[in-house]
Amino acid sequence: MSALDDTGAGADLHRDILTTLLPGFAGTEAPEWLLRRLEGGLGGVCLFGQNITGAEQTRTLNASLRGANPLAVVAIDEEGGDVTRLFYEIGAPYPGNALLGRIDDVALTGQVARAVGEALVATGCTLALAPDVDVNSNPDNPVIGVRSFGADPGLVARHAAAWVRGVQETGVAASAKHFPGHGDTETDSHLELPVVRADPDAFVAQALPPFRAAIAAGVASIMTAHILVPALDDRPATTSSVILQDLLRGELGFDGMVMTDALEMRAISATIGIEEGAIRALQAGADALCLGHDLADDALVAIQAAVVRALREGRLEEERLAEAAGRVRATATWIADSKGAVEPAFEVGVIAARRALHTEGNAALIRRPLVVDLEPRPSIAAGVSPGPGEWLRRSLPEAEVVRMGETGDTTIPELEGRQLMVVVRDAHRHPWQRELAEELLTRTADAILIEVGLPHWRPSGAAGYVATYGGARVNLEAAAERLAENGDAGLYSGSRRGVEQSGSSPGS
Fold first, then answer.
1. Residue 397, Cβ neighbours under 10 Å: how many?
2. Do 293 and 382 contact (CB within 8 A), yes or no?
3. Residue 506 has pLDDT above 60, yes or no
4. Residue 192 predicted with pLDDT over 90
5. CA torsion through residues 163, 503, 385, 372, sign
6. Alpha carbon 41 to chain centroid distance?
7. Residue 152, SS3?
8. Where do the CATH 3.40.50 domains begin and end in the chain?
9. How many C-beta atoms surround the C-beta of residue 411 within 10 A?
């Protein structure tokens, strides 16, 4: 029977195509086209910061999505720390992975993951596109960094398992990423196709243990990486049956939902194209296709048409499509049958941020601060948020914040009796940050440098040094609190914490 005739079989196949697709959309309300597609069997959506203004709005939005399709998967990048969608404008109240790896307390990691899950349940989200279980073995990695638990495969593996168990205890599905491992790269797959230069034995020993641990912990989904690993195959991982079928399904024994990273990322869209990428991903063994931030109805229609052509031409088998759709539905059914908590407990994030904070020298705030925030180009994964300088200002109301980039005006206001605080992110990767920070630190004897990325570089001229292991609000609140405690506690205000930590208004 033809897959493309007007019988029930044809209708089933068209529904199967829709089930594999998870588009994004603009705005804070579900557009008509999206609700119509959901009623027709669309597998779900991916939410981004552009879709969220507050907890109540998010609950209302998600209720409309699930009303159109009770089995719709509502996926969201909520890793904790720097990568947050629920708290895009006000900053995450729980930390990210680098901080948890530094503490190396798997029970605490599980508690933080549970808090993430509780926040998602409270707003109606059902699939956390987390945890990031990449082993950040390359310190020059521009896109993983503090999103990773660390550079040691064993450490990353035990925290990957704890995070998966913690979030899934709430009834939210986890998606471990980015398979087979994005940690040993020097380029960002949002911008180009990264290549991992490692021999097969080294790659397997370094990158795969966290995925094995996540699978053993019962992870519901695994997200693919748009990377090329010549040691494994000459095709990008998202489109490689060797990686998705032989390795992930066969050797590692994963039988859950395989989800692609966003097809709009240039590693796919600028190489083989979005429609071809969708076909090849399905051929290779992917089940759910994340379209991305800017791919909505037009892209969805184009991908549907491309998949229909691939079925007609025999490039894609009906059985493979039905298998993919079946795994998406099985994941959605697992979510629907799970009973989760609904009261987020954010105090655990504060506790974790305080425990991980590292200080050296005279890290004491003794008078009104001037914060100079040296901002690198933001990661596309994290997006543009108010940033660490703003989080400091909200905790230190008397602070003035000056933000600077690699280019543009570098004129610093006169100190006028204020204490200098310089904020950097991954300064070891940015010569301009190091140079400008060193110059600034010569201006006063009690300057403090705050590193919100990975602390691989120490300045020579700072009186005090602080490493936060992340640039989320909770990280900077902990830093401000410690600096004030060491100096003048009257300069610190924790007044914002009451609302966000109560669990009543995530994202508001």
1. 11
2. no
3. no
4. no
5. negative
6. 27
7. coil
8. 357-501
9. 7
Q: Does the pTM of the predicted model rise above 0.70?
A: yes
β-strands 464-467, 358-361 pairing: antiparallel
387 against 507, higher pLDDT: 387
**Band of residue 190 on the pLDDT scale cut at 50, 70, 90:** confident
- Of 462, 492, 297, 309, the C-alpha closest to 372 is 462
Distance CA 321, CA 324 (A): 5
Does 426 qualify as catalytic in the annotation? no
Q: Is the peptide bond before 178 cis (omega within 30 degrees of 0)?
A: yes
Q: What is the pLDDT of residues 76-135, one digit of tens each?
A: 999 999 999 999 888 899 999 999 999 999 999 999 999 999 999 999 999 999 999 999
Q: Which fold does the domain 8-337 belong to in CATH?
A: TIM Barrel (3.20.20)
Q: How far is CA 249 from CA 212, 285, 448, in A?
A: 11, 9, 50
Catalytic residue among 14, 178, 182, 190: 190
**Which SS3 state, helix, strand or coil, does residue 342 take?**
coil
State the fold for domain 357-501.
Rossmann fold (3.40.50)
261 is annotated as an active-site residue: yes
Residue keyed to tokens 């009906």: 318
Residue 320 sits at φ, ψ, to 5 deg, of -65, -45
Q: pLDDT at residue 440 above 80?
A: yes
Is the C-alpha dihedral spanning 398, 404, 408, 409 positive or negative? positive
11 sits in which H/E element? helix 8-19
The length of the chain, given as a count of residues: 508
- What amino acid is encoded at 399 in this protein? A
Residue 210: which region, alpha, beta or left (left: phi > 0; alpha: psi -120 to 50)?
Answer: alpha
Catalytic choice (261, 287, 373, 426): 261
Query: Of 254, 237, 177, 482, which is closest to residue 357 (Cα–Cα)?
Result: 482
Residues spanned by CATH 3.20.20.300 within the chain? 8-337
Residue pair 68/39 in contact by the 8 Å Cβ criterion: yes
Rounded to the nearest integer, the mean pLDDT of the chain is 90
